[in-house]
């Protein structure tokens, strides 16, 4: 029975993945579309009433029929707005109506359809509201606006969000011929396009008109959505580099955000620099941007005499949305000008309220679109040859050689437009991009490294909870896997089942569990309600041989008002070890956050019991009860190149379950933000920590500077000094406090539009001890110095072809009398030639060569002999990897 209970979560995950698509397919077969298809030809509708009413900011036209009018179409074409009601007639309607939003109405018949054509007044906007047998066409005129003043005090009342959202509606027309970049370069833009011009700043101003003119044109056909940006600027000042895909965050950018389910919670973002280089992501309220999202779309761009023009085409196959005939999406259009530190949007988006997706406008007019049959298959092949130094065996180190040929396939099937089923056989988990350097010396707890492997990064947000209970890097070496993610109405869900061969292969060959596989299962269901509120359940299971771990979690996000959000989570775990040990524990998390343009605040509480275990999560510490608060205030004068300035403070305290104080911290900072993406920050911190039943007081002062003032140079620098604890003293010594210092220097040079050089240096030092007994015995000797140096060069030959070279140096210069560390030095060279046609179709040719200061000599007392320079080869690899995206 115990074995059966351990397998329940994994079986639940498998059932979710296998049964949900069947249930959804069966249910969706009874849609109104299928019923209409089986019905007889529709009868003619009769328009029984047509009325015009003047409103405060425009006009409302009321059209009433004798039956439901939900099959209308509406769109704008130039200065006219068209409403078509199929299979309808109205012989009595006059054509001489006028209103504040339009000048006249023309009513005509096309075959069996009734067409209303409204001639719009200058700057008027139109939208449709439909309820049963009534249609309201709402025409609005912009209110007189003076140049908004930057918000200088919290007493300034925010713009009513519902009002702003209601007026931000645009209708996209269907086009028979997609717009071409050349048409706009020759200043002969097609007329059947939706046109948007009123871009307003989010930063540095709040609602201030954009400093440079931006015009966006939208249209669509059966397969794609088209967006063209025409941006005015001095081409000599525009920041546009020929970079690899997604490496454009420092450039001028234009973009479109699409909330395709219009649930104001999750949205796609597609951004392009002036040369057409792409960046895509998914933004989720409460989680932020997920830049690991990659999909297939098209873009091109060109600099002009007075700015630049960009064209984007987004296939509906690359999006997920409902299967309704008429679509209503959330939309925002954006432009970023880094030299001015300016980001502007249509519609108006403000930091005075918390959240981004809820402020999007509405995109109407999309009808009869679908991702269609969408099956993607991505086979890959890898050929690699490597030589590695094995220094784990007794005696002298020895080299081992390995030649590997590996292949696999990832498959994706889109079910009913909104569900995604991913399957994999021997998945491509070769990590092409290396991890960014981090300090690993003298760290008490595990250091987090983000996921970079292709299969796990897509749709990772579906499994994210406030506490990280699913950390995909825990699955090391799978062979088979399946994942189902999607959205049905207000329900979102995800399920994953996968094996992992890594743990069994690490055991000795005589171990009874050698080469046994672990089974991994994750299931997530979330229900949305209200305005950006939700409640969700997460279940994870990990089984290996006779051991198992299950975690059950309930979490919620409550949008209290425009500024305040509450997030909470409760979890329970069960653990059975290989030796039969049993543990169980609980986890609680809560957070109350205020987001605003001037004042921001957050208070949190975390409670993890000693027996809580999450084999698949990233929970570096248990047995804690921690509470903390953060507050910041920013003044925004918007003059003398100062965008904002102000203080921030953070404080926390942590106790264990026995009530003993483990740590407390207090931190205060002051920050100044200048134009040119320039930031200066100074701070001071005080800490207390209890380590091995002994308390230590430490402190530190820090400085930070960052700037992109020059288009060819980005610079970041930090420095900190104070005291810290030597957590890993040499044998015979207790942990002790010592003087500490550290810093970092980051430099990005762009000598040409095709070349980028990144230089990173990280320095960490634990100097002389402040403990009198240690000082008396060893004097003012340094404990360790850690130097991390990375040089990274990228050259872009074309949009698809690039060459990247990385040289990493890491030196730990340790005093073995004071710290339990080796005097270790390593040097690694990494070359990668990439041909990336699109996400999924790529060729990589790579070479890696590593060196260390290990001596090729017999070990002394079981320890390797260290020499002065890292000249001993520890591993080298040459590989060729190919993948190809097949899309049906």
What is the overall pLDDT average?
Answer: 85
Proportion of residues in helical segments: under 10%
Question: Gyration radius, to the nearest Å?
Answer: 31 Å
**Helix run count:** 7
Q: Low-confidence parts, pLDDT < 50 over ≥5 residues? A: 1-40, 144-166
Shape: globular
Secondary-structure class? mainly beta
Taken as a percent bin, the fraction of beta residues is over 45%
**Tally of strands:** 48
Structure, explained:
It is a single chain. The protein has 7 helices and 48 strands. The strands form 5 sheets. It has a 24-stranded antiparallel barrel. Strands 10, 12, 15, 16, 17, 18, 21, 22 and 23 form a 9-stranded mixed β-sheet that branches. The model is unreliable at 1-40 and 144-166 (pLDDT under 50).
Throw out a few tags for this protein.
single chain, mainly beta, 24-stranded antiparallel beta barrel, 7 helices
Write a concise synopsis of the structure shown.
It is built from seven helices and 48 strands. The chain has 888 residues and is mainly beta.
């Amino acid at each position: 029975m115990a074995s059966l209970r351990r397998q329940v979560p994994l079986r639940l995950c498998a059932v979710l993945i296998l049964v949900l698509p069947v249930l959804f397919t069966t249910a969706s077969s009874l849609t109104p579309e299928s019923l209409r298809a089986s019905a007889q030809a529709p009868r003619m509708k009769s328009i029984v009433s047509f009325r015009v009413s003047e409103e405060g900011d425009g006009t409302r036209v009321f059209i009433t029929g004798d039956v439901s009018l939900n099959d209308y179409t509406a769109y704008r074409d130039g200065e006219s707005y068209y409403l078509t009601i199929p299979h309808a007639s109205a012989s009595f309607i006059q054509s001489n109506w006028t209103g504040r939003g339009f000048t006249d109405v023309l009513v005509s018949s096309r075959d069996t359809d009734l067409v209303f054509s409204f001639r719009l007044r200058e700057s008027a906007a139109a939208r449709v509201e439909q309820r049963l047998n009534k249609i309201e066409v709402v025409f609005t005129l912009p209110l007189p606006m003076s140049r908004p003043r930057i918000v200088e005090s919290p007493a300034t009342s925010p713009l009513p969000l519902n009002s702003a959202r209601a007026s931000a509606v645009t209708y996209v027309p269907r086009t028979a011929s997609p717009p071409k970049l050349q048409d706009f370069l020759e200043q002969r833009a097609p007329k059947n396009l939706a046109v948007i011009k009123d871009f307003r700043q989010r930063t540095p101003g709040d609602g201030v008109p954009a400093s440079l003119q931006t015009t966006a044109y939208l249209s669509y056909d059966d397969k794609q959505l088209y967006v063209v940006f025409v941006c005015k600027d001095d081409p000599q000042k525009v920041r546009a580099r020929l970079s690899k895909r997604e490496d454009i965050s420092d450039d001028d950018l234009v973009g479109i955000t699409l909330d395709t389910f219009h649930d104001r919670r999750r949205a796609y973002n597609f951004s392009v620099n002036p040369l057409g280089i792409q960046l895509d992501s998914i933004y989720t309220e409460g989680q932020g941007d997920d830049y690991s999202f990659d999909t297939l779309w098209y873009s091109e761009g060109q600099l002009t005499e007075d700015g630049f023009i960009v064209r984007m085409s987004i296939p509906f196959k690359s999006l997920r949305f409902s299967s309704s005939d008429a679509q209503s999406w959330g939309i925002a259009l954006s432009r970023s000008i880094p030299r001015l530190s300016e980001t502007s949007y249509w519609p108006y988006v403000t930091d005075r309220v918390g959240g981004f997706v809820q402020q999007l406008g509405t995109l109407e007019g999309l009808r009869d679109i679908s991702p269609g049959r969408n099956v993607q298959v991505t086979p890959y092949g890898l050929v690699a040859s490597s030589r590695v130094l094995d220094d784990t065996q007794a005696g002298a180190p020895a080299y081992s050689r390995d030649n590997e040929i590996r292949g696999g396939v990832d498959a994706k099937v889109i079910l009913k437009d909104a569900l995604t089923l991913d399957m994999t056989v021997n998945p491509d988990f070769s990590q092409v991009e290396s991890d960014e350097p981090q300090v690993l010396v003298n760290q008490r707890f595990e250091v987090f490294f983000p996921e970079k492997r292709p299969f796990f990064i897509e749709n990772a947000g579906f499994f994210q909870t406030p506490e990280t209970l699913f950390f995909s890097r825990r699955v090391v070496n799978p062979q088979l896997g399946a994942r189902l993610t999607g959205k049905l109405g207000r329900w979102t869900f995800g399920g994953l089942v996968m094996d992992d061969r890594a743990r069994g292969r690490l055991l000795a060959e005589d171990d009874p569990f050698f080469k046994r596989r672990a089974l991994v299962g994750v299931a997530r269901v979330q229900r949305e309600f209200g305005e950006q509120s939700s409640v969700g359940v997460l279940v994870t299971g990990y089984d290996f041989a006779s051991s198992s771990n299950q975690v059950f979690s309930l979490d919620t996000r409550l949008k209290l008002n425009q500024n305040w959000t509450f997030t909470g989570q409760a979890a329970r775990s069960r653990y059975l070890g290989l030796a039969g040990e049993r543990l169980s524990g609980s986890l609680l998390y809560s957070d109350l956050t205020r987001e605003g343009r001037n004042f921001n605040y957050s208070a949190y509480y975390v409670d993890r019991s000693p027996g809580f275990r999450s084999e698949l999560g990233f929970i570096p510490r248990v047995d804690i009860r921690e509470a903390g608060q953060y507050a910041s205030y920013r003044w925004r004068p918007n003059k003398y190149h100062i965008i904002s300035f102000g203080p921030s403070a953070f404080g926390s305290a942590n106790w264990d379950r026995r009530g003993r104080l483990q740590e407390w911290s207090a931190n205060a900072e002051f920050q100044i933000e200048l134009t040119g993406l320039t930031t200066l920050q100074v701070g001071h911190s005080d800490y207390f920590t209890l380590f091995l039943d002994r308390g230590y007081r430490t402190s530190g002062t820090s400085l930070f500077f960052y700037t992109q003032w020059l288009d060819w140079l980005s610079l970041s620098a930090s420095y900190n000094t104070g005291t810290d604890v030597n957590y890993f003293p040499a044998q015979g010594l207790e942990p002790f406090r010592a003087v500490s210092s550290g810093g970092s220097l980051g430099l990005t040079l762009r000598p040409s539009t095709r070349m980028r050089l990144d230089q990173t240096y990280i320095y960490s030092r634990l100097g002389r001890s402040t403990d009198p007994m240690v000082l008396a015995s060893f004097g003012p000797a340094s404990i360790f110095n850690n130097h991390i140096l990375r040089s990274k060069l990228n050259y872009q030959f074309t949009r698809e072809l690039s060459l990247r070279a990385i040289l990493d140096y890491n030196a730990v210069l340790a005093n073995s009398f004071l710290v339990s560390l080796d005097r270790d030095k390593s040097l690694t060279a990494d070359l990668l030639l990439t041909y990336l046609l699109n996400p999924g179709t790529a060729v990589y040719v790579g070479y890696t060569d590593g060196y260390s200061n290990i001596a090729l000599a017999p070990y002394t007392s079981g320890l390797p002999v260290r020499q002065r320079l890292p000249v001993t080869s520890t591993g080298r690899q040459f590989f060729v990897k190919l993948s190809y995206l097949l899309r049906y």
